[in-house]
């Protein structure tokens, strides 16, 4: 994203960066002050809740992952499930 920030979702002991397209769409919704948005991620519809800062698959609303907007340079596990070595 323009200002050096990136969107992340929680993994086991660490954070994953969202893929570029998803991160961009989240940023657009966030900048428009939307409270939630719905996005297709890896073939599944997910709900992003910017008030409570979590994501969950629409069909599995109780299975939540925390999300955050942070500097792109922070330590991360990888991008969208692709590990950094
Ligand atoms: N982008 C890509 N894949 C996702 C995303 C997303 N935003 N959200 C969920 N998945 P759930 P560790 C994650 C995948 O929350 O070792 C990581 O990307 C999710 O993948 O129940 O625990 C890794 O690939 C999971 O496979 O909807 O840190 C993997 O977990 C599946 O959707 C292991 O990461 C169900 O997640």
Tags for this entry?
1 helix, 8 strands, eight-stranded mixed sheet, 85 residues, binds ligand V3L, single chain, globular, mainly beta
Structure, explained:
With 85 residues, this protein is mainly beta. 14% of the residues lie in helices and 46% in strands. It has one helix at 20-31; strands at residues 5-11, 14-17, 36-41, 44-49, 54-57, 64-71, 78-79, 82-83. It has an eight-stranded mixed sheet with strand order 3-4-5-6-1-2-7-8, covered by helices on one side. Strand 4 (44-49) and strand 5 form a beta hairpin. The longest helix is centred in the N-terminal third of the chain and has 12 residues, at 20-31. The chain is globular, with a radius of gyration of 12 Å. Ligand V3L binds at residues 9, 11-12, 16, 18, 41-42, 57, 63, 65, 77, 80-81.
- Small molecules bound in the structure, each named once: ligand V3L
Mean pLDDT: 96
Spatial order of the strands forming the largest sheet: 3-4-5-6-1-2-7-8
N-end to C-end Cα span: 23 Å
Strand content: over 45%
> In DSSP terms, counting alpha (H) and pi (I) runs of 4 or more, how many helices?
1
Write the layout of secondary structure elements.
Blueprint: E1 5-11, E2 14-17, H1 20-31, E3 36-41, E4 44-49, E5 54-57, E6 64-71, E7 78-79, E8 82-83
Parallel strand pairs: 2-7
Antiparallel strand pairs: 1-2, 1-6, 3-4, 4-5, 5-6, 7-8
Bound molecules: ligand V3L.
Nutshell version of this structure?
This protein has 85 residues and is mainly beta. The chain has one helix at residues 20-31; strands spanning 5-11, 14-17, 36-41, 44-49, 54-57, 64-71, 78-79, 82-83. The longest helix has 12 residues, at 20-31.
């Amino acid at each position: 994203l323009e200002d050096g920030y990136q969107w992340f979702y929680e993994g086991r002991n660490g954070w994953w960066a969202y893929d570029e397209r998803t991160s961009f769409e989240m940023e657009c919704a966030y900048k428009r002050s939307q409270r939630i948005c719905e996005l297709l991620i890896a073939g599944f519809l997910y709900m992003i809740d910017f008030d409570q800062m979590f994501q969950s698959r629409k069909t599995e609303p109780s299975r939540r992952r925390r999300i955050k907007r942070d500097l792109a340079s922070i330590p991360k596990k990888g991008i969208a499930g692709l590990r950094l070595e």
